[in-house]
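Protein data sheet
==================
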Amino acid sequence: MHAHFERHVYHRHSHESYSFGVTESGAQSFTCRGGAHTSASGMVMAFNPDDPHDGHAADGLGFTYRMVHIGPGLVRDVLSDRGGRPAGLPLFAEPVIDDPAAARHVDALHRALVGGAPALRRDELLAATVACLTRRATGWRPERPTAAEPTVAALARDVIHDTYLEDVTADDLAAATGRTRYAVYRAFRSAYGMAPSDYQRQLRLRAARRLIAAGEPLSDVAARTGFADQAHLTRWFTRYYGITPGGYRLARLRTG
């Protein structure tokens, strides 16, 4: 959910899931667990499953926030995948977290879920967000790396090279390497200096660059190389190469 409210008042309710929200602007006031709380800009709201709460704007200017609901089973899977998880599911003692790192994680996950990010990127951000918030709540830490990581990383890299135009997932890499999703992610970052999703995007951009140089229409290039649309391709192409796809095409034409 991504919303701006000024006069809306939430009736007291709860969710079956964990609910993590980041306040973008303004402030939201609510009651939860017998106390009054306010989440201001840059703060995170963390509701446990079945946590009754209400909500309303703290003043007449209203508030804007992003909210992600994550089922308990998915939280359990992420923590089990990373190892060293706390006994049972994590419970957040306070419903408001003033932590910039946690806010960045929730914001990035929400934007990926609604912005057409590849499945591999969504998987990575989900795991990172759950891990960050759980560390904040319980002090949990993931398991330490093992000596087998270089081999795991190489296997994952081969899979990505073979499937980079497909919507490969973290589960696919785990199945191919025989390790957990987090073990694959950790090994890949250690060996190649970037996340598997970043490596996948890099391969897609190289393929897009070849198609652009060959004269393919930019909208077709975006669709063929796994980008949500031409604007999505343009944004990442410019970040990687310092020039727009159209600018790159013109430069190629001038140089023959």
Observations:
- The chain is about 50% helix and 20% strand.
- The mean pLDDT is 91.
- Residues 119-138 form the longest helix (20 residues).
